[in-house]
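Loading example: each entry is read as two labelled lines plus one structure line.
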Amino acid sequence: MLLPDVETMTAVLYFGLFAMSFDFISGYTGYLSFGHAVFYGTGAYFVIVAANGKLPLVPHTTPFLLLLVLGGLLATVLALVIGVVSFRLSGVYFAMVTLGVSQVVYVLVRDWGFLASNPRDGPFVVGPEGATAPIFSVGVPFVDPLNLDIGVLTGDSVVLGPLSLGSTEVSFYMVGLVVLVCYFALQRLVHSPFGRVLVAIRENEERARAIGYDTFRYKLAAFAVSGFFAAVAGGLFAGFRRSASPDNAFFFLVTGDALLAAIIGGFGTLAGPLFGRLLDETVREFLSKEGAGGGLLPYLRDTLPESVLTTDIAGLTVQGAIETFLNGHASLYIGLVFVAFVLFVPGGLLGSVRERLGGPIAKQVAARIRGED
Amino acid sequence: MSALLAVLSALPALVADLATLPLVSYVDTLGQFLRPSTLVGVFVRGLSKSAIYVMIASGLTLVFGLMGVLNFAHGSLTMIGAYLGGLVMVLAVTGASGTVSRFAFFLVAVLLVFGALSALGGVIEVGLIRPLYDRPPIYQILLTFGVTLVLDELVRIVTLFYGLQPISEWQAALGTKPEPLTATIRLGSTTVSGLALFEILFGVVTVAAVWAFLTRTRYGLVVRAGSEDSEMTEALGIDVRRVFTTVFALGTGIAGIAGALLMWDPVWGASVPLAAETLLPAFVVVIVGGLGTFRGTVVAALIVGMVDAVTTWWFVNAIEFTGLPEMFIFLILVVTLVVRPQGLFGVAEVGGH
């Protein structure tokens, strides 16, 4: 009953990647990129607009993975342009200029008829005029014949001996694969000398500059990398959902969701945002009305006796209270959890566990098993 | 080569959508725009928009100037003020209420909203923000962002429970406007709405009140001293913590009053999305003006309001791009930060952020 369903978990994966890319710039260098949704949206829109055959040079049959990379590169260019301007500022001013740029893009996307027939609702994957809508195949040689396409309803189902996976499950593993590769890439960067310089910038930028690092270049490079992976996450989101809208791709509250995931999971830990998003989505699903994997509401409705449900408390029946305060209002509880984390658990889930163990979990557990305490 | 041809053949479709520029008609429209009656109308509308912007931004700038806290919950507090003001009006006004009594009720509503939101602001400052002063300033932004989520969702629950539509404007509150505010008034050869004049009056009174508080009262002196150098002020024997609480309460109170004003405006109106709709322009105004300077905020509000009015006129009469005014507002923010990062009247790196 408590396990979220596969669709939710897929959302955890791609949004978790977005939150990671946000954390890569904000958590590691300390520069709060409040307009990060612009890269996520760029990736998402790039995939759909290309699949609709509207981009020159990019045929609508381009393999999905190539689309992800191209979208990522576009976002990288965008990040370099925004970064050159923004990194002259710091702190609140940096957050505001990135927010401002992303809102300009948001308004542009929301009203530009080229992107979708109804730009306010956003584009869908319909394919170019006269052609059928493309199905996003992986586009890797020798992998394609396995029929591992992604998409909620259009993907493939696979039978592997006793295992039979529906289209959503296949999408889950495919999205998971891309996210895993991206995670390892980011992980590599964080633990490289480059990543160490980023942390140095966060801790004391002047000192980092004094040792001789050109901090501006490092910040710009980190921003570009972060933009690339944010766009990949957006591309995965669009490929899986087959649609995007200005409000769920480009709006500043999308960045807010990433911030939420990063803080709850652990600011400045790479895997943390994934756990933060997992908590976020789980709470949302748990408190949703249908709760495909079961939720609190159907559970209470089924288990509480009729007499309790109709009990009147100050003019409101228990049933009414449940409907009012639980149905679809997960944001309230997530907001409360977030505030509690900011106040009492500044390290977030992962950060606190690491602090308790004295280092990354994998290393500590391995050390304990080997008995080197 | 074929790739190049593909680009060339696809370009017209891409460009045609963006640039169908009928320049001749734009010249005609410019002539129409420069007519005195149009200019006066746009000017008055610009002033009323400036009044709204200064209302939603001055609380924010007070709080930032003194405490260095960029309050993300400011928009939500404005939204709550709109709903509270609407509640008072809807309860008090009946069909028989005349113009004078409606204005009187509005005054009562403004006072009640100010009291209620100041109290709420005080609680937020003491309970949530105070424990974070010794942390990096980023945590205060994060905290107020969380407060926004909670407040918005609470209001959404309450409005849904009472059967109000949380997404669109609260019609019952819109309907409590006194007669003169719904009428149009002739002003020379052009007409302006009564509401616009009322908003201008309201904005001027608020600016005058805040300015008088800052420069003519002892407490205002303390606040300005605290903004300049809070350590030195502390050393002079002033309890800066208590000043923080007072100013935060004052700032949220002004946010609430702004909401009460917006509740009557059909463009804004009491609704849950009002929180985000007011927060972003408020940020633009305080940053363009220079974070924490009240004078800068007033000037920036004038600039943003005028640009808003002019671009709105161009959108209505010539350019079919719905987002035109909104886009220009954010462009002002970006251009200001690029050209003069500290804002028009700001000093570089206020409070070390």
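The first helix of chain B runs from residue 2 to 18.
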